[in-house]
Amino acid sequence: MDQVTALEQLLATALRRIAELEAALASMAQKNADLRRQLAKNSSNSSKPPSSDGLKKPVPRSLRGKSGKKSGGQVGHRGDTLRQTATPDFVERHEAEACGTCQHGLTAGMIKAVERRQVYDIPVPRLEVTEHQAAIYCCGHCRATTTATFPDGVNAHVQYGKRIRAAAVYCNVQQLIPEDRVCQLLRDLFGATSLCAASVTNWVNGTARTLGGVVEHILARLNEGGVRHLDETGLRVDGKLHWLHSISDLAFTHYRISAKRGAVPSFLTGGTIVHDHWKSYYAHMSGVDAHALCGAHHLRELKAIEEIEKEPWACAMSVLLNSANQLKCAAQGRGETELPTSVHHDILTKYMAILTEGLAFHERQDPLARRTGARGRKARRPGHNLLVRLRDYRDDVLRFLTDFTVPFTNNQAERDLRMMKLRMKISGTFRTLEGAQVFADIRSVISTVRKHGGNILETLTLSPQQIIARL
Questions:
Q1: pLDDT digits 0-9 by tens, 422-451
Q2: DSSP strand E in 259-387: where?
Q3: Is the pTM of this model over 0.70?
Q4: Which of 128, 24, 64 is nearest to 320 (CA)?
């Protein structure tokens, strides 16, 4: 009897040890899967930037698939090239002295036609110095002295004018050239030998103060409703992580610096906002009428789940979203403002069928091992999380189908934020929060003017009232 009891205790110990080893093995397998998932992610199947791909950069492949169009210019596209003008600034005549065949002398009376060739070039750049002379009068009646008034902006004994100041701001803020190199550029081009980096900084700060009213006007226009694109990206200010928040549409752009990523523009009201499902947009922007989620983000996530997790439903969902977008674009091309009810119902039916298939797939999977000390809801696989999101936010995912003014992607915001990444690559960090906001304010105006087809360099020489009148 004692031997049986001992064997039972030994068996129980062995079973407990086996259970512990199985749990440890499951945990290690899950960690291994997480690590493999991280290693397999790149710029094509996640939100990682292309610069992080390194030597393993994937072959470029559009997430939207083939468009069916031939490469190159499309039918009806109007090409453009450098053309001769009927009013050249200068004309240089070239004459021959002897016949090219018999070497007989030629005269002006023998000219029967002229072959014209034109060369477009810039004049030799140089600074122009304008001297302002204010007449000083001595009154013949009371003998008092009166000096004429100088024009606005002419304040110093010697100073640079508004056009070269605008050029410096343009180079620094629009072309992202650091202050020292701006000085070198203007010195080489225009002979501005006495220009220093501190002057460029002062001009940039002064421009931001001047454009304050224009920035407020832009923000007011963006708060009028319609479709607005929202996004944010990280940057360094005084060595600390900050965030550049953008609000934009086809005509206006507004940038704002914040120390918190979650400081979304909760003051916006009405209309539809397009974003990438950052939770703060849902939590703090109850004043808007509707949300729309970026289809490009969904396609990247679906590609990762298809390639890394090998889940069959992901490919079907990608094909459906792409085909739905193509149907919408085709309808817009025909001048329609909505899809036929039967087409929309068919897309919705397929959408829900794919979700049902995907959720059923995950219900058949073994549950994930719970990490030691983990709290909260039970962990789910990435594909399961995406399925739940696509189900719970179905109307926002498919907003581009029900409202043709809403695009399929949030690319507008992505394009408007791209310049900040380039700025960080070139110059690194901002020293102060004020300097970062100065940059953001001027870029708000520059981006907006560019969308209106305006000339940036000319705009920087105008008054705020003149700029607002053009927007």
A1: 898 888 889 999 999 999 999 999 999 999
A2: 272-275, 290-293
A3: yes
A4: 64
Tokens read off for 18:
């086996």
Contact 410, 276 (CB under 8 A): yes
Residues near 423 by Cβ (< 8 Å), separated by ≥ 6? 176, 235, 439
Give the distance between the most distant pair of CA atoms in the chain: 138
Label residues 362-385 b or e (16+ Cβ within 10 Å = b).
beeeeebbeeeeeeeeeeebebbe
- What is the per-residue pLDDT for 23? 73
Instruction: Tell me which residue of 212, 223, 276, 232 sits closest to 252, measured CA to CA.
Output: 223
Give CA 299 to chain center in angstroms: 18
Q: Give the 3-state secondary structure of 211-276.
A: CHHHHHHHHHHHCCCCEEEEEEEEEEECCEEEEEEEEECCCCEEEEEECCCCCCCCCCCCCEEEEC
- Phi–psi pair at 77, nearest 5 degrees: -70, 130
Provide the residue type at 415 as one letter: R
Query: What are the tens digits of pLDDT across the range 138-156?
Result: 999 999 999 999 998 899 9
> SS3 for 136?
strand
